[in-house]
Design goal:
Helix content: 25-40%
Bound molecules: flavin-adenine dinucleotide
Shape: globular
CATH superfamily of one domain: FAD/NAD(P)-binding domain
CATH topology of one domain: FAD/NAD(P)-binding domain
Number of helices: 11
Structural class: alpha/beta
Radius of gyration: 20 Å
Length: 368
């Protein structure tokens, strides 16, 4: 089997579409049997939207809701501003499944419910796969997102102390009306939350908190929410009469934010999405990066460019965006920084400029 994609999220699904569209026989291995919600704010920024259109998927047709304003909140203050582009809100189970279905329609061999146990890099990468045994591939596209694979795991980073949570809430009409068309970012000690509608009254609440803040709340999700609502007036007003869809949120631990893969001599294993680079989620651009990496990696593969040259190119493409996101993450980690950000955010040009700086600036051509 010459071409294998491991992972059927945004990055893996997009790579499968592109390779199948180029006439290549490609097999995608995804461990989940069926589409599932994921820890993600589900904000599609402009680059992600444009890449999806180029892949033949229109987010609006899939039911995405447009977002044109940002509301930023800390303590009892809030500032709202226009985004310098239109973003979209679309649940991940819908988006990821649409990509896999498109890839299958173009001829990709999509194997759901198939767990890859390990990957050995080399002239002929070797995979160990449940139900399929040992597979030798010409080339592997590694797209397992936040999850590391034995043999090609990412190094432990200094920022591994963060937990990501996500839950859906049903809002009363008045709160849903105020939230409509907005992405709201609410900052608090030890983290921040993103809130946006995914349909008329259903909102995605995604949270990033330090392990110590979660531990201080007794590792209790609802107590954590009560405590951060007491600290942030905007969250308090949105969630006071909201109904959680589930008793527990989805959670993901030890997020490797700030990771950017360094070329390491690999020729035949192309890293995509979060396996290539994992940007702090405050900017909400991880899916753009995942799609960009899928386009750049498949372009490189089809042009006979090796994996390391592609990894080097990705590092360059993402450098500016990473620097700005890292600076912002440091600023909002302290109370003084959050106060400062709220002061400057009130100036008309600041938030649109920051929104632009934390975005992917260079898009690849998708011309096939
Ligand atoms: C709290 C939080 C909020 C975020 N909010 C946003 C946002 O609003 N907007 C945005 O653009 N980005 C956001 N992100 C980032 C975004 O979710 C990721 O960057 C994006 O999902 C990366 O896509 P991916 O395809 O690399 O990985 P994923 O989407 O995680 O896909 C990986 C796939 O690989 C599969 N897999 C894993 N291991 C194996 C295995 N061993 N064998 C087979 N299959 C396997 C998984 O089941 C999964 O389907 C957020 C992240 C967090 C943590």
């Amino acid at each position: 089997m010459p071409l294998v994609i491991v992972g059927g999220g945004v990055a893996g699904g997009a790579a499968a579409v592109l390779l199948a569209r180029a006439g290549r026989h490609v097999m995608l291995l995804e461990r989940e049997q069926a589409p599932k919600p994921k820890v993600c704010g589900e904000f599609l920024s402009c680059a992600a939207h444009d890449y999806l259109i180029a892949l033949g998927l229109d987010p609006a047709t899939l039911g995405a809701m447009p977002i044109s304003r940002l509301r930023l909140a800390a303590g009892s203050r809030e500032v709202s501003t226009n985004l310098p582009f239109t973003g979209w809100s679309l649940p991940r189970d819908i988006l990821d499944e649409a990509l896999l279905q498109r890839a299958a329609a173009l001829g990709a061999d999509i194997r759901r419910g198939t767990i890859v146990r390990s990957l050995q890099d080399g002239a002929r990468p070797q995979l160990i796969v449940d139900g399929l045994g040992e597979i030798e591939a010409d080339t592997v596209f590694l797209a397992t997102g936040k999850h590391d694979l034995r043999g090609v795991a990412r190094p432990i980073s200094a920022t591994h102390n963060l937990i990501g949570f996500k839950g859906y809430f049903h809002l009363p009409n008045s709160a849903a009306h105020t939230l409509a068309g907005h992405i709201e970012l609410a900052m608090f000690g030890g983290g921040y939350a993103g809130l946006q509608l995914v349909d008329a009254n259903r909102a995605n609440l995604s949270l990033l908190v330090t392990q110590s803040r979660f531990a201080a709340a007794g590792q209790d999700w609802f107590r954590l929410l009560d405590e951060i609502c007491a600290e942030n007036a905007l969250l308090r007003s949105r969630l006071s009469d909201a109904l959680p869809e589930t008793d527990r949120p989805l959670a993901i631990f030890r997020l490797p934010f700030g990771f950017r893969h360094r070329p390491d001599g690999s020729e035949h294993v192309f890293r995509l999405g979060d396996q290539m680079a994992c940007m702090p989620s405050f900017a909400g651009d991880g899916m753009s990066i995942a799609l960009h990496s899928a386009v750049a990696a498949t372009d490189a593969y089809l042009a006979d460019v090796d994996a390391d040259a592609y990894h080097e190119r990705m590092r360059r493409d993402l450098a500016g965006q990473f620097t700005w996101s890292r600076v912002l993450s440091h600023i909002i980690a302290t109370q003084a920084g959050r106060r400062l950000l709220m002061e400057v955010a009130a100036l008309p040009a600041v938030m649109p400029a920051l929104a632009r700086r934390t975005r992917l600036s260079r898009l690849a051509q998708v011309i096939r």
